[in-house]
Amino acid sequence: MRRNWMMASKAHAVLSASASHRWLHCPPSARLCETYEDKGSDYAAEGTDAHELCEYKLRKALNMKASDPTENLTWYSEEMDDCANGYASYILEQVEAANETCADPVVLIEQRVDFSRWVEQGFGTADCIIIADGTLRIIDYKHGLGVLVSAEDNPQMKCYALGALELFDDIYDIDNVSMTIYQPRRQNISTYELSKEDLYAWADEVLKPTAELAFAGDGNFLCGEWCGFCKAKHECRARAEANLLLAQHDFKLPPLLEDTEIEVILSRVDELVAWASDIKEYALQQAISGKEWTGWKLVEGRSNRKYSNEAAVIEAVTDAGFDPYEKKLLGITAMQKLLGKSRFDELLAAYIEKPQGKPTLVPESDKRPAMNNAKSDFMEEN
């Protein structure tokens, strides 16, 4: 099997694939975000470390020369190592699947892809691409725990697929594109497939015209869940106006609202709460930097006592004739890790129970099955 390995540049595009979900919904946000400094975050740094470890594990699994980056990873942990091993194993499975339809597939890791035929200066870095006759596979690793990422109709993945087709569509007989999000910390492996023709139609009819607006800084501002990753989210007037319009419902008590009003609020309330939190955080950081807000002041919050030297505390308490330690049962996850899954099941399966979760109201698109409510229970009893 021929394996082609190519390393990508880490440059950043104005209309990046990773931000496409935002600028496709809100075109002018692309240029607006350019005016803000990219400060990064601990989450982004952890994700970068995880991707570097995944790359090493995958190269090693495919018997390719690779240097172990572990000692240089600031955020390395056993959990990250487990995630990277799982990712490498999953890719190997996909390579084997590709071998069933093609004797000479190509595997690309951290590959720069160019989709500038549809997006001005458009490029990105795909974690893994498997090129084979029949199906083009795109796999993207997500280390994040907070947001569940779906591959369904995912514009970032479709941009990567377009870039891969630019390289290989004339060489391989590709009919379909398979796009997978591998998000191990959320037990999420999401795959979405579509035909090559449908992908090209989306690129011509949706991606290209919207990207032209975004690159020019034109189009209408539109707020939504994509605002969470926008650098201008704290000061965006369109977002403020939309949320303040929704907030006017707060002047009515819930029983006085129409059902349709409550349904509108439910569909937007998470955005409203997120916007309010963003405003508070922005105001706090500005105050720390020296800004004074009328009617507000910066104070020291509560803090908890802590030991300045744990080793000295242990020694002092032990010398005084006391035991400085407390003993408690390991949690289920830690216990399973200690015993191993099979031994854990053998010894403790009879003692493990999973109580019913607290009722939560979610959109119909949520994949969890609906639970019975009081009305349903009453109907069943009768």
For the biggest sheet, the summary is: 5 strands, mixed
Number of strand elements: 5
Helix content: 40-55%
- Poorly predicted sequence stretches spanning 5 or more consecutive residues: 1-11
Mean pLDDT: 85
- Secondary-structure content class: alpha+beta
Q: What is the highest CATH level, the class of the largest domain?
A: Alpha Beta
Q: What percent strand?
A: 5-15%
Distance between the termini: 65 Å
The fold-level CATH name of the largest domain is Lambda Exonuclease, Chain A
Element order: H for helix, E for strand: HHHHEEEHEEHHHHHHH
Outline the structure in words:
The termini are far apart. Helices cover 43% and strands 12% of the residues. It contains 12 helices and 5 strands. The chain is globular. The protein has a 5-stranded mixed β-sheet with strand order 1-2-3-4-5. It is of the alpha+beta class and 382 residues long. The chain has helices at 20-25, 29-34, 42-61, 78-99, 155-168, 196-216, 237-247, 259-288, 310-319, 332-339, 341-348, 374-381, and strands spanning 106-114, 123-131, 134-141, 174-183, 188-195. Strand 3 (134-141), helix 5 and strand 4 (174-183) form a beta-alpha-beta unit. It has 3 domains: 20-216, Lambda Exonuclease, Chain A; 234-288; 310-350, no CATH class.
Please provide a brief summary of the model:
By secondary structure, this protein is α+β, with helices and mostly antiparallel strands.
